[in-house]
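Quick start: read one record
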Amino acid sequence: MEGRRSSEIPHGPNNPLKDVLQHRKRDETFRRLFRLPDTEKVIDEINVCYICDMDPDNKSKLPASAIVRKNMYPGKLYQSQNFLAFQSGDVASMTKPGISHQSFILPLYTITRFERINDDHHRSALSFKTWHKMTHYLKVDAEKTACEKFCDFLKIGLEANVLNMKGSLKLFLSTCKSEELLQTPEGPIHISDPIGGLGLQFGFKSDTTVEKDDEKTAIWVDYFQENGRNLTLCKQPYVFSEMVKEGLPNSLRGEIWEVCSGSIFLRFANHGLYENLLETHKNEVSPSMDDIDKDLHRSLPEYAAYQAPEGIDRLRRVLTAYSWKNPDIGYCQAMNIVTSSLLIYMTEEQAFWTLNTLVDQLCPGYYSSSMYGVLLDQVVLERLVEKYLPNITLHFKEKDIQLSVACLPWFLTLFINSMPLPFAFRILDCFFMEGPKILFQIALAVLKAHEKELCEVDDDSELLIVVKNFFASLNLPEGTTEEDYAKKFTIFKQLMKSAYTDFNKVTSDKINKYRKENELKIIGGVESFTKRNALRHVKNTAHFGPEEISNIYDHFFGALYYAKDGHEQPEMDLIAFTKMLEHMTTWAKPANINSSGNSENLQVMQEVSEAFILRLFNYFKSDKNHFGITLNDTISKLGEILRGDIMSKANFYFSLYNPDKSEHLNNGELHTMATELFWLMTTLEVEFDAWDAICNFIALSAEYSNTKDDVDALLALLKQEVNPDDSTYFAKHVSILHNALMGSDTPVIEVTLPVLRMIILTEDRLEQFIQTIIPASFKLEKEVIERQKGLGHEIFEALFVEGRKLANTMAYPDHLTPNGGKSQSASSRHNSPAVSPKPRSTRSTNSVAVSNKASEEEYEFV
């Protein structure tokens, strides 16, 4: 199947969902491996051999057999919509401990020249030249047709990215520190203002001297010149990782963090969005603002910038912008700690996108109201401790000691609040390069270093004392001598050595395996705890019993889950509220205008239904100026509909149709009430004559409003004959109601609350409907099968439905189909001056060149 494009992967005839899920898993693995945006999907992949240290000017003079084997790295080359990515080794070796890989990620908008070369033996090779003048040369280990397909798709992708290269690349590169360090008077990039974070003004909490830091910077500059930089950085095996482990130079730390995390690609794709978020919402107050303001001055109190307006303002802007971009999370505890660290080395925009990557990809679920991600990782850590440090596990079980008491803050703040900042930043260096596995390795190393002491503690408090004493031994107070610093640095280096050597078998694959084994248990535990905690805070039970309250909770948050695609949200908007009613009642389900029956009739019923649900939504909101409906609102207002006597329910209906809180209901409000009650009666298929009951309700309203003389005329309008078998029966009666109550000759009707109560008591059918039939239409208790599901099954079902939907519509994107220019996008490109084909002389037997000349650069896809 090598080299086959995704649309050609055969779908199982009986299980298309399985194929969809396999493709999804492959895409997720690809994005995780190369830290790419969530929108990227694998278009094609082929086996190649990457040739290092090959002078592009000499490659044509050397036969393939003359290439020194030590410079050859077999691996796989992947292609997505906007990236080429290479990793050496096979799939099995990619996550093995102790193996370093040759890898690179090339955004297509950084490739200025692409060439496919065939030698005399009809073997193919690919050559890529980047904006930074580096050439990548790869021998293709695949059939000729597979190589041709790969190249066809690649040319389309390169053409689609030319505008990014011409319009955005140079501007973006001027925001990169590496470009500032390597700029030359004759070069295309000229940067005058220093690029960096708060450290430029307030200093860096460095673990090294200025001289040593300058030496590190010089080494990285040499590395950039040989291996590309920022967007085109190539990671040489062993060399790159060892340079990171040695501690990054202060000037380049921010850029290397965003390169390793992948946030640099997000920043390029969304350049300017950060400033736009702040500008768009400059006159608004974020719902998270109170929580953000509380934590601003608690962020790295030992760093001077966060005791000054400059630092506080930058931190506030980044956290606020994130709360606007991702309102489902908004702001959560510990985000301030991580972001304040980023801002020491990064600009606001860099920190903003790195925070996005951290929350969404590197540490999913850490920064949420339930913190399910970090809770899950505490269970994973316990599994790892049981495997590698069994004596600690046995002792803690015997003493009933909770490991997470000490370790949870390490993970939540990425050790920033535990370690002195110079050492914490060294951990962040490794974290952005290695991913979350380094957190587990360091935690295990800390526990191993104190295994003997930990096996003697008797309770949680003694556990905390042991670990706090260790971290205190690393403190670097003002006036620390060079000798004392050397001792503390030695302790830290021993810790990191232990993490990498003693626990090198703690791989990302192993962590993900343990996560999958325990995630449903954690989700269930979080769900149960959250539910118990929420129910304890219910202010008004509205005469519901504990089981009924529990079921209302399930309906409430179940609707939120599906309406918000699984994202957390404490309040229901109209969509979620409608979902809840659809599950609670039969009358809230949308009318099927495509079913048998008159479409006009069903359309009118749907409009009345939507109006009634919107009215309920606005009434349920306790705070009319707020976002939506809380759990307390739901319980309280459901109590008004379902509990109490007929007098209290009359109060509910009077208030429901009296939004301006006047003393009486007027003609328009009565018209709306009568229409919606008639719709409810029709939908619920009451046994009495619904229309006659509504007519009597209107007549009594007129009679009690001192308009007795007009009752007969009003009834004459209402009692127009409509055949019960008429397909427009409902629509015609709605029209009759409107003409009777809203016509020019209609008498003025005013119904006060006492009058409404009297009318309901007089009209037995209306009393029965409000007192018994409507409450009975609410099914608070879930079906038995639903109660057995749990959130885990709900999540699976949501994925299943989504997968089925994808399976039914899955096709390869038209704009990536090499069909001779017949696709829509290819057609549109034909009329575009961006890229035009022209013949080119090469030694290849079947090469085709595509070039585009810009003001300073020639882009060629050969």
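The chain has a mean pLDDT of 83.
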